Amino acid sequence: MQYIQAFIMGGAICAVAQVLIDKTKLTPARILVGCVVLGVILTGLGLYQPLVDWGGAGATVPLLGFGYSLAKGVQVGVAQDGLLGAFTGGVTGAAGGIAAAIVFGCLFALLSKPEDKSK
After folding, report:
1. Taking all residues of the chain, what is their mean pLDDT, rounded to a whole number?
2. Contact 73, 93 (CB under 8 A)
3. How far apart are CA 65 and CA 36, in angstroms?
4. Contact 69, 94 (CB under 8 A)
5. Could you tell me the pTM of the whole model?
6. What are the CA-CA distances from residue 23 to residues 17, 19, 53, 62 (Å)?
7. Rounded to whole angstroms, what are the CA distances from 96 to 36, 81, 116?
8. Rounded to whole angstroms, what are the CA distances from 49 to 67, 98, 108?
9. Other beta carbons less than 10 A from residue 1's beta carbon
10. Dihedral (C-alpha) 108, 3, 63, 60: value to the nearest 10 degrees?
11. Residues 94 and 66 sit within 8 Å (Cβ to Cβ)
12. DSSP secondary structure letter of residue 31
């Protein structure tokens, strides 16, 4: 059942983003930034945690989940280090995902054979 819930949650988030791309004049970059900011705001208001509890990876993997990771990191950082944690907590909270993206990006760049697209 967890897989179905994650699929529904992730699919709903992606469907909303796709509707914004198709039906508005917002650029994809603005929509992506809006998703991250919305994830931070919803986490700060305590509204995103129930979605994470229900949808699991379907809620934490999309860009709303990146905002969730940043906000949770800031909350933990402030609890541990006070005001300094507001500046360092987000980086610490999202470090694992960012490191994985860099490692896998480099790995696939080494394993793939890039071709000239102008042919």
Report:
1. 91
2. yes
3. 7
4. yes
5. 0.77
6. 10, 6, 30, 20
7. 17, 20, 33
8. 12, 21, 33
9. 5
10. -100
11. yes
12. H
60 in Cβ contact with 52 (< 8 Å): yes
Q: Which value, to the nearest 10 degrees, does the dihedral of the CA atoms of residues 64, 66, 71, 76 take?
A: 140
Other residues' Cβ atoms within 10 Å of the Cβ of residue 2: 11
Note the pLDDT tens digit of each residue in 32-58.
Answer: 999 999 999 999 999 999 999 999 999
Q: What is the dihedral of CA 47, 52, 58, 59, to 10 degrees?
A: 40
Q: Which helix (H) or strand (E) holds 61?
A: none
| Chain centroid to CA 117 | 30
